[in-house]
Design a protein that fits this description.
This protein is of the alpha+beta class. It folds into 2 domains: 148 residues, Nuclear Transport Factor 2, Chain: A (Roll); 153 residues, Nuclear Transport Factor 2, Chain: A (Roll), CATH 3.10.450. Helices cover 32% and strands 33% of the residues. The chain is built from 9 helices and 15 strands. A 6-stranded mixed sheet has the order 2-1-6-5-4-3. Helix 2 packs across helix 3. It is globular.
Length: 336
């Protein structure tokens, strides 16, 4: 990475951090002013269902941040991973990725979920593209089903992995506030690309653990969304997520990513959608159907040496289910 590129990456990080600070300190009525300060006029937002695609800072403030900040009161942002880099997909661009939890007292309804008066941890990952000092595009994923479960509503059958509060990196080094080694980032990006290609070529098969061992540590940890859960080691990952996923979903097609980059020993991507598939039945307790269904996914990775050691995953499961005729939010809360 050249000195000029490192300086630009650092400036983008600092701009996103300033936005977070302003957003976190703002009252709900101040959200529109904050977003107008930091976002371009033609700002584009992609969020999990029910937010989906929204254009313009004012609309995003009114539909995303104001309701959430009203629900949680004073919000603490607990960031576990923070990184930036040049997108290797399409027209590229410079992006900043952040992952962690938004934490507050759940005192007002949110998305129809009744408040508990207790602490709520909303797991999130977001991607912000910065251009000429303004945020021009965002991808925002949060675990809506995780919030529902904390409020006492369990909209899905028992999950295959563990239901835990998802932690940050085992190494506690995920806040990359300074630019990292370009060589390290290139090695990480090459490794996740190899992993992606291996899995893509094996869709439709019950892959042996030896295929995963090419790119994953034997004691890897996979942190899935609520509804699937967290699992540990290659054999348990395959048993508790990969095999149920592959055996219940057919004709999986990788559509690619909106954003993919690496910095240091971390890499990330998201798609809109990443995958398209035909559910044959069984995944998340759903019956089979002949529809082609899209899946929006975030993956964030930590490399340790020559292998991937940790993978944080968020999937827009409410959207995936809605395409099959199941409004997971409305169905659950209508019968509370």
């Amino acid at each position: 990475m050249s000195d000029a590129q490192a300086s630009y990456t650092k400036a983008n990080k600092e701009q996103v951090l300033r936005f977070y600070a302003a957003l976190d300190q703002a009252a709900p009525a101040e959200m529109a002013a904050v977003l107008n300060d930091y976002m371009a006029p033609d700002y584009r937002f992609r969020g999990v269902h029910p937010f989906n695609e929204i254009d313009g800072p004012g609309e995003v403030a009114a539909n995303v941040w104001e309701p959430l900040w009203r629900a949680l009161g004073p919000v603490q942002r607990r960031t576990d991973i923070f990184m930036a880099g040049h997108n290797v997909v399409g027209d590229g661009g410079e992006w900043v990725c952040s992952m962690g939890h938004l934490v507050g007292l759940f005192d007002e309804p949110w998305l129809g979920i009744p408040p508990t008066g207790k602490l709520l941890y909303l797991r999130f990952a977001d991607f912000n593209r910065v251009h000429d000092g303004k945020i021009v595009e965002t991808g925002f994923f949060c675990d809506v089903i995780g919030a529902m479960r904390q409020a006492g509503f369990d909209p899905l059958p028992p999950q295959t992995g563990a239901d835990i509060l998802v932690p940050g990196p085992q190494t506690h080094d995920g806040l990359l506030l300074e630019p990292q080694s370009a060589a390290e980032g290139e090695q990480t990006l090459a490794l996740v690309t190899q992993m992606k290609d291996d899995l893509q070529e094996s869709y439709g098969t019950r892959v042996p653990p030896e295929l995963l061992q090419r790119t994953w540590h034997d004691n890897m940890t996979w942190y899935g969304p609520s509804g699937i859960g967290t699992t540990h080691t290659i054999p348990r990952y395959q048993e508790q997520h990969q095999y149920p996923f592959r055996e219940a979903l057919d004709n999986i097609v990788l559509n690619g990513h909106v954003c993919r980059f690496a910095e240091g020993r971390y890499a990330c991507w998201f798609g809109w959608p990443n995958l398209t598939m035909t559910p044959t039945g069984g995944f998340l307790g759903m019956p089979g159907c002949d529809k082609r269904i899209d899946m929006r996914v975030v993956d964030i990775y930590r490399r340790e040496g020559e292998k991937l050691a940790e993978n944080w995953v968020l999937i827009d499961l409410p959207y995936w289910l809605l395409q099959q005729g199941v409004d997971i939010i409305g169905r659950t809360l209508r019968h509370r």
